[in-house]
Design goal:
The complex is a heterodimer of chains A (about 800) and B (about 110).
Chain A lengths: L2 H26 L8 H28 L5 H25 L22 E11 L2 E9 L1 H24 L7 E7 L5 E4 L3 H20 L3 H19 L6 H32 L13 H5 L12 H7 L1 H5 L6 H9 L4 H18 L8 H4 L5 H10 L1 H11 L6 H24 L3 H21 L3 H29 L15 H15 L2 E2 L4 E2 L1 H19 L1 H30 L6 H6 L5 H16 L9 H8 L25 H27 L5 H7 L1 H8 L4 H73 L6 H26 L1
Antiparallel strand pairs in A: 1-2, 3-4, 5-6
Chain B lengths: L9 H21 L3 H23 L4 H4 L5 H32 L13
Helix pairs in contact in B: 1-2, 2-4
Chain lengths: ~800, ~110
């Protein structure tokens, strides 16, 4: 079978398996063995099947496209500027960057479009030009994401066997106190957890494989609702219910922007599809037509939409006129709005500033959920979509993305310094790392941002699962009550250390050997530096925040590890009860730790960077229109030794400083954090209160909304209800008047008639004597009388 | 025309029928015995029968200028059948009445009075 038939079939099946599992568990969940234990087998089997299928697809892709991009780029480069290419090759090889530049074996961009398999699985409906279909868009990015999601989801399913085992019995929730002072007792919800996990996997895989933006939106909302269900898994806890609502509502804000983006795209392009399907031009080729050398071009539809007034005034939209309008900048702002709108959705889902507030609260959900949904996959979906939509983003939009990312990464990293809840530290770390990815994308580093997405997914889900293992053992989230746990739970401790080193970006500078985070974070920072070279004003902010963020990341991650696993136990009760988690929990940790180390290796034949290069969108960024002088350096520029080494030196120094500080404060105890806290109380309060974002939103959004809703409720109760009550009372009055008429007039008439009838009948009754002879006499008399009557009447008339 | 001196014609039959009818009616009106009343009914019916037969007779038809022909005969046959049926039902009612009240006095049968 050729890849264009086998890949959609494989991925389609892999996508639908979790849906089948979800349907089965929804229908028969409670009947599946004791407390629904078989539900977990079904869900795990389904996702394992998905993983195997996507692995097959991965292999088909890898062997089918082994030489893509790398070879022909090299050939093209050699043809055109062979000398230069050779020189570049020599340079990179000399500094050990040859593996890194596999996709750029020459100098320049890929010249041919990336290999994409796209088409419709099923057309739901077609209304004129609007086609609603279940379609797929499979390129290397899809394959990478699909495999990554299904792999991590499989491991987390296994891990959940152990973590959620309490749900197999009746559960006593110690965090819920009922009105009578007792803790809540409730039946276990084991099957329901796996039911939601299956639905989530289906939605997430659908989001990845989706071939049109409408389908993306549908699955976008589906993962949102799964996230809502899973955050609110312990629904009886007020905090969990609030967190679920918060996550859902904050996401609505972003999705509103996304809908605007969708409307702009559809109104101007008339299609939702990414790629060209059945001869209809998709979004990407509309914005970056081959005729214009794949440069960003305002599509005709947008120009006509923007020039509606002129067209209405009678100007004919001939091709010449349209291109005249194009050169005047018509419709460009529509392109920017479409891009910013789509990015708004990403801001909500990926918890970027200013909508980052929901993600830390989402840690109310069970830890496997945090690992799967709120660190590795769903929150990364925003970054994925930003990467997928990269061809549509105008330079101004990229700048917005970069600013959002830079602010987010710094803000979240600083908050993580003071957080004491182990999961919240990781949550802020996730927000911060997502900011890195967005910054990477926004600075023009398409592959860098998405590469970090993949590596981060592995090490952050590892970190979350380790924290889950710790919470499972200690029954607390508070790091101040932990300490010294590495003696009790070595597997967890050292796999977590691997994760910490990965996020720290541990590696040997200049030799290009390190853990996964080392490669991805360095490539982002190198790209930011390269951006700085072109645009010093914006670039300076980005570079400072990114490098500073790396130092803070090192500090808070090691702080977390030292507080949890090193030193002496702070709470002996917790320490004495701690134990290593069961095998089903730590084996996934080991597997993930392996991936956290290796997934970034660029020299592997199927390395993530090479695969991503195969999917890189074509075409240079155009000149910006709204912001003057914005130039986006191509990504291969950042691989040049001068930029990359400088970035590496900067980030290594700063991160090492962070590490040293963490060791000094928490590892060796040479410095006392409390003293620092007392020295800078204002900063401490600011960070402890998370930059007062919750308070700010509470003041400017939540309270006004509640105020208005109370106002409306009062209006409803007093005025509308009052009016209705008045109507009701009036109706009762009318009804009682009617009742009088009915009773005395209508009924009276009927009663009088009846009484008359009765009395007449009563009078006539006496005629019925029962005497037979009398009857005969009456008959005779009657007959005679009749005869006489007829006789007389005949005589009278003649 | 004098009935006693003239030849026998329809009028004579009508006189006999009227006598029978009146006798029957008087019998019905005066008898308290249910069987007597039944007999009165028979007289009434047969009075009517004589009229029908007389009017349908070919021999007498000149008297009145027209005749019922066989219709009169048929109607009187029908009346006879009717009388038989009626007598059967009435006798059954009488027997039952007797069984319940040990009498056939119709003045006692006034339970259905209003």
């Amino acid at each position: 079978m050729s890849p264009d038939a086998s890949l959609p079939a494989l991925l389609g099946l892999a996508w639908l398996l979790p849906l089948a599992s979800f349907a089965l568990i929804v229908l028969f969940g409670p009947k599946m063995g004791k407390a629904g234990i078989f539900a977990s087998y079904i869900a795990t089997g389904a996702i394992l099947g998905s993983f195997l299928l996507s692995l097959t697809a991965f292999c088909i892709w890898h062997f089918g496209h082994l030489g893509d991009r790398g070879s022909h780029v090299a050939a093209a480069a050699a043809e055109h500027e062979g000398e230069h290419a050779a020189e570049a090759n020599a340079e990179t090889a000399a500094t050990g960057h040859d593996a890194h530049s596999a996709g750029h074996a020459g100098h320049g961009l890929p010249t041919e479009p990336a290999t994409v398999y796209t088409g419709d699985w099923y057309t739901l409906a077609q209304f004129g030009a609007l086609k609603l279909s279940i379609s797929y868009y499979i390129d290397a990015l899809t394959i990478v994401m699909f495999t990554m999601v299904s792999l991590i989801a499989t491991l987390i399913h296994f891990y959940s066997f152990g973590y959620m085992h309490e749900e197999l019995h009746e559960v006593v929730d110690h965090e819920v106190t009922l009105a009578d002072g007792h803790h809540l007792h409730r039946p276990g919800r084991f099957h329901r957890f796996f039911q939601y996990l299956s639905l989530f996997c289906f939605s997430m895989l659908g989001l990845v494989v989706a071939g049109n933006i409408l389908m993306v939106f549908v699955f976008w909302e589906l993962v949102g609702i799964c996230s809502y269900f899973l955050i609110g898994f312990y629904i009886e806890r007020k905090s969990a219910a609030n967190a679920a609502n918060k996550a859902f509502i904050v996401n609505r804000v972003g999705d509103f922007g996304m809908i605007i983006g969708l409307m702009v795209l559809w109104a101007s392009l008339g299609t939702f599809a990414f790629g060209d399907i059945d001869g209809q031009t998709g979004i990407f080729r509309s914005v970056r037509p081959a005729a214009n050398d794949y440069k960003i071009t305002v599509p005709d539809g947008m120009i006509k939409l923007a020039a509606m007034d002129e067209i209405g005034a009678g100007v004919d939209a001939t091709p010449a006129q349209v291109s005249a309008w194009r050169s005047e900048g018509y419709g460009y702002w529509l392109l920017v709005i479409a891009g910013v709108g789509i990015f708004c959705g990403c801001v909500g889902k990926s918890a970027q500033f200013p909508l980052h507030v929901w993600l830390p609260d989402a840690m109310e959900g069970p830890t496997p959920v945090s690992a799967l949904v709120h660190s590795a996959t769903m929150v990364a979906a925003g970054v994925y979509l930003a990467g997928r939509f990269y061809p549509v983003f105008a330079p101004e939009v990229l700048l917005v993305i970069a600013y959002a990312g830079a602010i987010t990464l710094f803000l979240a990293a600083t908050i993580a310094i003071t957080a004491v809840d182990i999961k919240r530290v990781l949550a802020y770390s996730t927000v911060s790392q997502l900011g890195y990815m967005m910054l990477g994308l926004g600075a023009g580093g398409w592959a860098a941002g998405l590469f970090h997405l993949v590596t981060h997914a592995f090490f952050k889900s590892l970190l979350f699962m380790c924290s889950g293992s710790v919470i499972h053992a200690t029954h607390t989230n508070d790091m101040r009550r932990m300490g010294g746990l590495r003696h009790k739970m070595p597997w967890t401790a050292y796999t977590m250390l691997t994760g910490v080193l990965a996020i720290y970006g541990a590696g040997i500078p200049f030799f290009y050997i390190g853990l996964s985070g080392y490669y991805s974070k360095d490539s982002i920072i190198a790209q930011v530096l390269s951006f700085y070279n072109e645009n010093p004003t914006h670039g300076a902010i980005f570079f400072t925040l990114a490098v500073g963020g790396a130092g803070i990341t090192a500090f808070y991650m090691f702080r977390l590890w030292f507080m949890t696993f090193a030193g002496r136990p702070r709470d002996h009760h917790v320490f004495d009860h701690a134990h290593e988690s069961p095998k089903v929990m730590y084996v996934p940790l080991v597997i993930l730790a392996f991936f956290a180390v290796t997934v970034g290796f660029p020299w592997l034949p199927f390395s993530v960077v090479k695969l991503l290069e195969q999917a890189r969108p074509l075409g240079a960024q155009g000149a910006s229109v709204l912001v003057a002088g914005l130039t986006f350096p191509e990504e291969f520029v950042s691989h040049s030794p001068e930029i990359h080494s400088l970035a590496e030196i900067a980030v290594t120094c700063v991160a090492f400083t962070g590490l040293v500080l963490a060791i000094a404060f928490y590892g060796l105890g040479k410095l006392n954090p409390n003293e620092v806290r007392q020295q800078f109380p204002a900063i401490y309060r600011l960070l402890w209160n998370k930059w007062y974002f919750d308070e700010l939103y509470d003041a400017i959004v939540v309270r006004p909304v509640l105020f208005v809703s109370r106002l409306v409720a009062n209006f409803d109760r007093r005025v509308i209800d009052g009016f209705i009550d008045w109507l009701a009372r009036a109706a009762t009055k009318v009804a009682s008047f009617d009742d009088l008429i009915d009773r005395y007039f209508v009924d009276g008439l009927v009663n009088v008639l009846a009484a008359w009838t009765y009395s007449i009948a009563d009078a006539l009754r006496s005629l019925q004597t029962g005497k037979l002879r009398q009857y005969v006499m009456l008959i005779v008399i009657g007959t005679v009388a009749l005869t006489l009557l007829i006789r007389w009447s005949v005589a009278a008339t003649g | 025309m004098n009935l006693l001196s003239g030849p026998v014609g329809v009028s004579h039959f009508l006189v006999v029928g009227a006598v029978l009818f009146v006798a029957g009616v008087v019998c019905m009106a005066l008898k308290r015995n249910a069987l007597g009343i039944l007999m009165g009914i028979e007289l009434v019916l047969n009075g009517a029968n004589i009229n029908f037969v007389a009017f349908s007779s070919n021999f007498l038809s000149e008297d009145v200028g027209y005749g019922l022909g066989l219709d009169g005969q048929l109607i009187s046959l029908f009346v006879i059948v009717l009388a038989a049926a009626e007598a059967a039902v009435a006798l059954a009612i009488t027997l039952n009445f007797y069984n319940n009240h040990a009498t056939v006095d119709v003045d006692r049968a006034d339970e259905l009075k209003g």
